[in-house]
Each structure stands twice: as structure tokens, then as C-alpha cells.
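Practice problem 4.
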């Protein structure tokens, strides 16, 4: 197996692991490292015994990005000077950071980035080119170019990796993304759909659905019969309940919900529940600070209902890990689907819902 000056390589069965070995400079990507990495990738592709390629970084960090001035890089620049002027700088950026990354993205074998610590700038760029990213709990991702008045690194895949809304947030702020936040951002489930979808309006008479009022999603709450409908966004939920939409399950756990058969906590009204949720965030944290609750007379009541509160919160929270399957997730309601819905209503004797369906459609079906 070929040896390199900036990389370590090893093969275990069908798995070939390439490790950037410059921990003293946080595995910054020098010209030599990038050229050796390109060669190592090509060798792994050509080896029929290799089925999977892992890219890792030695030490505490995956990679801090491009090498902007380590002693080794500065010495190498003297030995291999660029063509003078803009043309030489453009060629360097194109060949080392764009062409390379595009070639690695299209490798014919699965690639996995094994990330820990900093994975920023060019480090995030290379990790994004891999098919999968496996990150440790301490991993931090970022494109910090905005902090320096720049735009982005040369290979730009963030909207596809994180969704357009999160991509804009991180490009505008340059903030670090934790491994947990990155995982939430790329999931194909209800939570990520709500976070990144185009503006949408959810129609429901169920208060639980107000939890979805976040980002571009609004909820048209139909309310009880005879009451006017109202549109809620994040601010509307906050104004109505004095808690954020994501905190409604904790609020409902305390005050109860007769429609869902959730018993309330004796003596705890909507205002007290909102005050506690604002202060402690959720039921577990509230119970952890039981001795601080005011008014003090409610502390033994809350303690006696601790398990009920935990169960209420769990039952009130919408499941956000339900896989949605392949896109698209939004489509026109076809006539056949309307008839299927009508059959479901009749099968379960939802007569009032069928009547409301007819009212919405402006039709009636005497059958």
C-alpha cells in the first residue's frame, strides 16, 4: 500500500480508510494533502477489493479547512509558485478546491466522512462531498466566510444538505452547527418538512396542530362549532397562550385537555402553566426545579402528579419523526381522494364531518 506524507491509509476487509494526518494544524488542507488525497481516492476506486471508503482526520478535529499559512504550506508555495496575477489564483481555486471536490463527490464507491471536532470551511466542503457523514457529539460544522466579508467556499452544496432556509441562516450568520442540529436539519420527516417547506396553511379544529405553527407554516384553527376561524402563526400562538408553539405540549400537560382526555393539574390554570413553561421549558426541567415553583402551595400538588404530567406531555406532543417517504409531499386533492375520504367518514359514522366536507365543496351526496 502506497505511503503518503500527509495521509494515513489502512484497509480492513472491504473498507478502506484514509486519514488526514496533520493534527498539529487541525488537518488544514495544503496543496500536498489535497493532491495526495486525490491519489488515495483514485487508488481506492481502482482496488477491486475496496467496497467503501472512509475519510477521517487525525487528532481532535476533522479539518479546519484550507491551509492559509502553515510553515509547510508557505515553504511549498516558494517551491511551486503560482502563475502571477488573477489567472494563477483562479486556477489554484478551481483545480484544488472545486475540480477536486466535484471529482470526489462522483466517486463510484460509497464514501463516508468520519467527523469530530471542527469541520469548517474547506473541511465542511470535503465532508459534504461524501455520501454519508458520521459525526461525533462534539462535531461542529460551519462556513465562516461571512465573518470575513466573503460568500462561501468553492463547493456549495449547503441548500441540498440542510435545506434552503437553514442554509441561508448559517450563511448569513456564520454560526456553528452542532452534530445534533445538523442531524435535525437533514432528516426526511415531519419536523424537517415543517422547518423547510414553502409557506403552507394547515386546516384543523384540533389545538394540538398549533404546534406546527412555525417557520413558514400557519394553522387555520376552525375552533368549536359556531366560533369564527382564526389563523395562527408563531407570534399568534405566543400571544394566545404565552408560550412558543413547540412548548404547547408542556402547557397542555399542566392545564389538561378534555378533548384528548388529558386530566389537568388541580389548582394550575393557564396563566400559571404559561409562567412555568416560560421559566423551565418542559415538564422534566420543571420537576427538576420543583423547590423553586411559585406559588409554593402548588409544589406538593405538582409532585403528586409528576407521572401524570410526564404522560400528558408525551401524549400531547405531535410525532415529528414520522417518515414522509419520497417527495412530493403536497399535491392537489383529486376527486377520487375526496370520495375515499367520504367513505371513511361514512364507515366511522362521522356524519358531521361529511356534512362539513359537502359544505366546503359546495356539493351534497344523498347516497
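Answer key:
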Amino acid at each position: 500500500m502506497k505511503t503518503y506524507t500527509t495521509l494515513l491509509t489502512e484497509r480492513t476487509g472491504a473498507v478502506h480508510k484514509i486519514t488526514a494526518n496533520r493534527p498539529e494544524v487541525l488537518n488544514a488542507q495544503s496543496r500536498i494533502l489535497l493532491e495526495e488525497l486525490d491519489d488515495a481516492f483514485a487508488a481506492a476506486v481502482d482496488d477491486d477489493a475496496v467496497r467503501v471508503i472512509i475519510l477521517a482526520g487525525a487528532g481532535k478535529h476533522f479539518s479546519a479547512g484550507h491551509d492559509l499559512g502553515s510553515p509547510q504550506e508557505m515553504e511549498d508555495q516558494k517551491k511551486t509558485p503560482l502563475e502571477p496575477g488573477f489567472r494563477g489564483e483562479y486556477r489554484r481555486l478551481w483545480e484544488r478546491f472545486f475540480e477536486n471536490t466535484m471529482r470526489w463527490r462522483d466517486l463510484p464507491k460509497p464514501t463516508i466522512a468520519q467527523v469530530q471536532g471542527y469541520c469548517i470551511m474547506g473541511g465542511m466542503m470535503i465532508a459534504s462531498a461524501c455520501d454519508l457523514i458520521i459525526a461525533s457529539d462534539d462535531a461542529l460544522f460551519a462556513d465562516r466566510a461571512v465573518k470575513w466579508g466573503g460568500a462561501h467556499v468553492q463547493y456549495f452544496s449547503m441548500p441540498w444538505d440542510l435545506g434552503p432556509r437553514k442554509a441561508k441562516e448559517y450563511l448569513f450568520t456564520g454560526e456553528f452547527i452542532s452534530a445534533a442540529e445538523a442531524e435535525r436539519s437533514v432528516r426526511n420527516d415531519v419536523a424537517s418538512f415543517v422547518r423547510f417547506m414553502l409557506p403552507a396553511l394547515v386546516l384543523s379544529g384540533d389545538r394540538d396542530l398549533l404546534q406546527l405553527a412555525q417557520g413558514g407554516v400557519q394553522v387555520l384553527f376552525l375552533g368549536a362549532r359556531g366560533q369564527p376561524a382564526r389563523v395562527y402563526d408563531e407570534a399568534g400562538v405566543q400571544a394566545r397562550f404565552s408560550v412558543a408553539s413547540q412548548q404547547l405540549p408542556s402547557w397542555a400537560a399542566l392545564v389538561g385537555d378534555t378533548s384528548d382526555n388529558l386530566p389537568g393539574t388541580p389548582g394550575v390554570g393557564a396563566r400559571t402553566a404559561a409562567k412555568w413553561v416560560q421559566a423551565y421549558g418542559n415538564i422534566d426541567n420543571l420537576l427538576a426545579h420543583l423547590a423553586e415553583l411559585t406559588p409554593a402551595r402548588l409544589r406538593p400538588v405538582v409532585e403528586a402528579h409528576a407521572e401524570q404530567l410526564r404522560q400528558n406531555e408525551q401524549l400531547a406532543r405531535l410525532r415529528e419523526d414520522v417518515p414522509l417517504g419520497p417527495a412530493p409531499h403536497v399535491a392537489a386533492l383529486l376527486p377520487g381522494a375526496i370520495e375515499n375520504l367520504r367513505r371513511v367518514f361514512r364507515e366511522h359514522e362521522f356524519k358531521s364531518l361529511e356534512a362539513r366536507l359537502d359544505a366546503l365543496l359546495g356539493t351534497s351526496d344523498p347516497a
